[in-house]
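Kindly inspect this chain:
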Amino acid sequence: MSSESPFQSSPSEVSPRKTALVTGGAKRIGRSIALGLARSGMNVAITYRQSEELALETAREVEAEGVQCLAFKMDVRSEEEIRRAVAVVAEAFGRIDVLVNNAGVIEKRALGEITVAQWDTMFEINTRGPFLTAREALPHLKAVQGRIVNLGSLGGIEPWAAQAHYCASKAALHMLTLTMAKAFAPEVSVNCVAPGYIEMHRPGDGPERPIAPIFAARTPMGRNGTAEETAAAVLFFATGPHFVTGQIMAVDGGLGL
């Protein structure tokens, strides 16, 4: 586990283990994804933007699964930071087999009140970030017949009036997934997991929103989803048949039906 600086690590020989890079892997769904990949036997690198303490805690949990973990600060809005981060992971582990574009942001704002800065920030993080990270990791992924898994949203499928900029950014990410699947084939499979309402109950995740019971009542399965269930869907795309590509899997308990 490394936390000395955003871009310091000790070079190593090529690891016999597969390696996954999870952006925004410090907490919530990202943490569950990192742990799920670790339990499958992969070394894991996680990035964070502000949650250093939680990132280090997650890294310790990952390493408790018997694999190695690299945790470092990276802003997906910065092309230079992404370039350097991918180089660090490739140098530390000798390979990148799976990229999970999990880092994202959500905001509630009436459509008529969204500022240009709010709109641009949403797309910079939710859409441009995955594009830049995938583009930078692509040579490493191609070398090992790798996988890309993007974290979309039910909001990219359904229109949410109070979150128009979020929905638009996730819908764009869904289309980006499809175009990547065509452009990066046959070496790299590219898929997307689109969660519905996911409940969080860990320190640092913040309080559950009052609207949670309303979503649960609207969901055919009678409850909201969990981070672990979302991570299981990511794990399927990360370890399942390489032939499966260009798919958007809703993990929503039927909420979108």
In short: The CA atoms of residues 106 and 166 lie 6 Å apart. The first strand starts at residue 19 and ends at 22. The two ends are 42 Å apart (CA to CA). The mean pLDDT is 92.
